[in-house]
Amino acid sequence: MPKTFADKVIDFNRHLNYSGKLPEGFQVLNPYLDNLETIEVMQQFYHKYYNDSQRRRFIIGINPGRHGAGVTGVPFTDTKRLESACDIKMQSAHTHEISSVFIYEMIAEYGGVKNFYKDFYINSPFPLAIIRQTKDGKWLNANYYDDPVLFEMVKDFMIMSLKKHISLGLDTSEVFVLGKKNAKFIQKLNKEVKLFDNLKILEHPRYIQQYKSKEKQQYIDKYILSLNNSK
């Protein structure tokens, strides 16, 4: 039996490991090693929505948030949306992530989770959560591009991860990059290794929720229009 899209994603996630260097004050969180239930719910999710061999379009985030995919193993999906939208309950954790709120409101307008995940695959060039320590000792979410030394250290791993994502069965003629700063770095990588034909840039859900919440519907409409035009 040939592997389904779900089988390939699950295999990718189960073997995810970053063993490279990091600047002082940064850490990588691997939910698949930290919580056995993460592997269970991640497998349920992909078997439910990706158990086929259909080609999909690629939506590219930054790196997982520690309250979203950093817990559930499913990009832009906190435990609330995992249960309410996908009907998969996580017992060991309860999380809320604002990016997940926007994504699932947009998915609902697209036509629901089954229709959306049949057409699109979301993941990140650095597919594990990154955290950084503040001066007072707290740990906060970090982006792979927050520190130039960090980016150089994780760059090869990102290129390798993007190539593995593509090998799952993705259409690379047009991809959707979330976040303008993220897009600059993806464009830089794309110039070096030529992964994608065309990049379509959309505002990042976290930015929309934090700074443009009054105009959220306009951004949902923009997403839907862009995604529908790619079919």
Description:
By secondary structure, the protein is an alpha/beta fold. Helix content is 49%, strand content 15%. The chain has helices at 5-14, 31-34, 36-49, 69-72, 79-84, 98-110, 113-119, 148-167, 180-193, 205-211, 216-229; strands spanning 26-29, 56-60, 120-123, 129-133, 139-142, 170-178, 199-202. A four-stranded parallel sheet has the order 3-2-6-7, with helices on both faces. Strands 1-4-5 form a three-stranded antiparallel sheet, with no helix packed on it. Helix 1 (5-14) packs antiparallel against helix 3. The relative contact order is 0.16.
Summarize the structure.
Helix 1 (5-14) runs antiparallel to helix 3 (36-49) and helix 6 crosses helix 11 (216-229).
The oligomeric state is: single chain
Give the distance, in angstroms, between the N- and C-terminal Cα atoms: 28 Å
Q: Biggest β-sheet, characterized?
A: 4 strands, parallel
Mean pLDDT: 94
Question: Strands of the largest sheet, in order across it?
Answer: 3-2-6-7
Task: Please describe the structure with a list of short key phrases separated by commas or semicolons.
single chain; 231 residues; alpha/beta; 4-stranded parallel beta sheet; 3-stranded antiparallel beta sheet; 11 helices; 15% strand; globular
SSE blueprint:
Elements: H1 5-14, E1 26-29, H2 31-34, H3 36-49, E2 56-60, H4 69-72, H5 79-84, H6 98-110, H7 113-119, E3 120-123, E4 129-133, E5 139-142, H8 148-167, E6 170-178, H9 180-193, E7 199-202, H10 205-211, H11 216-229
Parallel strand pairs: 2-3, 2-6, 6-7
Antiparallel strand pairs: 1-4, 4-5
